[in-house]
Recover the amino acids of this structure.
């Protein structure tokens, strides 16, 4: 009897120990499960906050997109730019609602000595692929014009032959002279559309044009450049285009290849020119002898982009508008 009582006592003790251990596991395991759940929730929240690839695509305008893979890889590996190209890309996106899309796929990217280049893929009244008018006219409003150095191989231009295939091209008036633009462009190392742009800017490609100070023909040659004209005809197509192109090439050579300085010089600009200098002739008998302060923007972001700088009213100064016509 005593042996049976002892056996029951041992059995009761064993059951008590097992029950106790089972309660301890049940008390600890819920906390372990909550800890795992908390870690999973934290990971889940981070994943939800990470933008999806489609949400990171940047649209510069209605037709140009930057893929998310390109954007994210460049942002992770590209060092801080030495030029204003990064802010220019941002400006391109900001201007997409008010500009003219002309199919530009790249922007001028140089080391700027005058702040943000402000280049935009779209053509606006004050900007385009080759920069903002304030940047091009650097110093005109205060200490004097002092443009950033840019060489002719860095500017963004269209191919003239391709431009002429566009039914809306402003170069239709120049189509009869295309061979000459290519001939002398190749001879002097100048993009043909740059030569044609001078013709559009200066004379609207009308070979009979005579300027306010007696400039002649397509390229508006001044009298000192007409001394060798055949039969004294400075409006001769071949002579006029060749001489104008040769003169521009000489400006590039004299300016160590500085294309902004050279294009401005073609219109009489000079380094250190102020607003007062440019507009000094406004109150004289030769109002159109002023320097066109919108010239660089109209030239590089208008004509060179196959955009009509006049009908689209490019610029901000329009200092020749008050001059009498004719």
């Amino acid at each position: 009897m005593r042996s049976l009582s002892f056996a029951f006592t041992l059995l009761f003790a064993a059951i008590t120990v097992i029950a106790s251990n089972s309660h301890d596991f049940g008390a600890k395991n819920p906390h372990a499960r909550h800890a795992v759940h908390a870690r999973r929730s934290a990971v889940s929240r981070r994943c939800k906050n990470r933008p999806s690839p489609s949400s990171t695509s940047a649209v510069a305008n209605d037709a140009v997109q930057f893929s998310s893979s390109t954007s994210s890889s460049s942002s992770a590996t590209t060092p801080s730019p030495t030029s204003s190209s990064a802010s220019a890309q941002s400006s391109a996106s900001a201007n997409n609602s008010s500009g003219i899309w002309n199919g530009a796929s790249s922007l001028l990217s140089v080391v700027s000595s005058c702040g943000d280049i402000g280049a935009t893929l779209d053509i606006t009244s004050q900007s385009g692929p080759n920069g903002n008018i304030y940047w091009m006219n650097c110093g005109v409003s205060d200490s004097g014009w002092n443009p950033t150095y840019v060489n002719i191989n860095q500017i963004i231009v269209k191919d003239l032959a391709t431009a002429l295939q566009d039914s809306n091209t402003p170069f239709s008036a120049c189509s009869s002279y295309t061979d000459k633009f290519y001939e002398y462009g190749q001879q002097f190392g100048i993009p043909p559309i740059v030569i044609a742009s001078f013709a559009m800017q200066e004379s609207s490609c009308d070979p009979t044009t005579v300027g306010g100070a007696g400039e002649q023909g397509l390229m508006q040659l001044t009298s000192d450049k007409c001394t060798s004209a055949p039969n004294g005809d400075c409006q001769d197509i071949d002579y006029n285009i060749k001489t104008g192109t040769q003169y521009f090439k000489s400006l590039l050579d004299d300016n160590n290849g500085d294309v902004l300085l050279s294009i401005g010089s073609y219109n009489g600009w000079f380094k250190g020119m102020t607003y007062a200098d440019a507009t000094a002739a406004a109150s004289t008998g030769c109002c159109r002898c002023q320097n066109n302060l919108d010239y660089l923007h109209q030239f590089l972001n208008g004509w060179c982009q196959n955009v009509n700088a006049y009908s689209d009213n490019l610029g901000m100064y329009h200092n020749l508008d008050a001059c009498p016509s004719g």
Notes: Residues 82-305 form a domain with the Lysozyme fold (CATH 1.10.530).
